[in-house]
Amino acid sequence: MTARILIVDDVPANLRLLEAKLAAEYYQVRLADGGAAALSVARAWQPDLVLLDVMMPGMDGFTCCAKLKDDPVTQHIPVIMVTALGDPHERLRGLDVGADDFLTKPIEYETLLARTRGLVRLKRLLDEWRARSETVRALGLDTPRPAPSIAGARALVVDDWDQGAQAVEAALSRDGMMTGRARSRAEAAALTAAVPFDLIVLSLSLEQEDALALASGLRAAEATQDTPLLLIADPAQRARLLRGFDLGANDWVLRPVDDHELRARARNQVRRKLYQDRLRADLGRALQQALTDPLTGLYNRRYLVRHLEGLLATGQASDIAVLMIDIDRFKSINDRYGHATGDRVLQAVAEALRARTRVFDTLARIGGEEFVLVMPGARAAEAQAAAERLRADIETLAIDVGDGALCAVTISIGISAAITRAVAEGAGGAAAWLLEEADKCLYVAKDGGRNRVVLRGGPAPLAGTNAATAAAIN
């Protein structure tokens, strides 16, 4: 997996050494000799990762990292801070200003590459969600919201050593996280199936289980495939840590565990998870807004046409019916009672139609007082019978329009069904043909007196009263 990496260091030899190592792994590399230059290159080039030296003249690495994370243009770029200092307080300071990781010189290149792969993989995922979110905002379907709080986030600690697990739970609880405990793969599977966790902390020192197999299982399970995985290991388990990253782990902490470092790394992972969840929810909400009618909650024309085209693409052209439904004399309702009452009539009719259709039918409001019902698997006679039931049921509605007054409502329905491939191709598409023919039948129904059903190619008109009449178009 290639990526763009920005290396920031004031020592030319360090720059060239890291450049050679990363270029050998086919990464694209750019160099900056100080904090100010790094900020400029990061904004313009948009790297996938920044390797940032701490000890630099002028603007040090901590200040540079804080500026990167404060800038909306660069705050999403992962930062690995690199220093010759092994002081845990320096590492914690780096994590607190927003660094995603902290490596000590001399750098272990296997560790660097493992961290790089993990952070780039995560950034690519978040970039995709960010791009979708920006599209949603550009369409005016959503607005920015403040970052979510980690208080109340759920963390699962998987460890069969009681003392170690209790220490981790105590540390996480100080940041307001709610914790659960699992001692085995079976317990972890049961808990993650029942509870949506925001973080999983897994010890690589399990006595009765293969922790890497458990990590692999967590990544494969649908419930936990996107849940951040933080590993805890002994220094001697370096090879297993690297293997854990290959399996999809997001971060690690070495024993003896520093509570402050554990909490900082856990906070970073949970924030990313909550941010990703929010982007996913925003996108789902925006799609819902884009594909549904806000007044009635029914699907809109855009969704209906795509859905109908999808059904027809499966070869159901001869077993599908389309009902075009229109509220009779709706303009006079608006004129007499006002548009607010007209909206209530639309909502009442929509709810009545929805309550009387099959679960696998699709009902949409396509504009004004017009609705469409798509009935897969329905031939002409079945569609006509269903339309008659809908017409008769709507006729019984009495909608309260205020001051004790009741408004009677009727509908007219046009039906098209049983399309052939030749007809569809000649009409420029089966979906377009079905909708157009149903619309023609609807106009015939309204011209014939309203409150009736007209089926394309249906039986001869029924004699009778003001009840619905089925007419034929040949």
Automatic annotation (TrEMBL):
| Keyword check for Phosphoprotein | yes
Question: What keywords are assigned to this protein?
Answer: Phosphoprotein
* EC number assigned by the record: 2.7.7.65
Pfam families assigned to the protein according to its UniProt record, in alphabetical order = GGDEF, Response_reg
Name the enzyme's class.
transferase
Q: Record keywords: Phosphoprotein included?
A: yes
Give the reactions, separated by semicolons, that this protein catalyses.
2 GTP = 3',3'-c-di-GMP + 2 diphosphate
Residues recorded as bearing 4-aspartylphosphate in the entry: D53
GO MF assignments: diguanylate cyclase activity
Q: Which residues form the Response regulatory domain?
A: 4-120, 154-270
Concerning Gene3D superfamilies, the annotation shows: 3.30.70.270, 3.40.50.2300
Q: One of this protein's GO BP terms?
A: cell adhesion involved in single-species biofilm formation
Q: In this protein, which residues make up the domain named GGDEF?
A: 318-458
PANTHER family attached to this UniProt entry: DIGUANYLATE CYCLASE DGCM-RELATED (PTHR45138:SF9), REGULATORY COMPONENTS OF SENSORY TRANSDUCTION SYSTEM (PTHR45138)
The protein's name in its UniProt record:
diguanylate cyclase
- Origin organism of this chain? Acidisphaera rubrifaciens HS-AP3
Recall the taxonomic lineage recorded for the source organism. Bacteria, Pseudomonadati, Pseudomonadota, Alphaproteobacteria, Acetobacterales
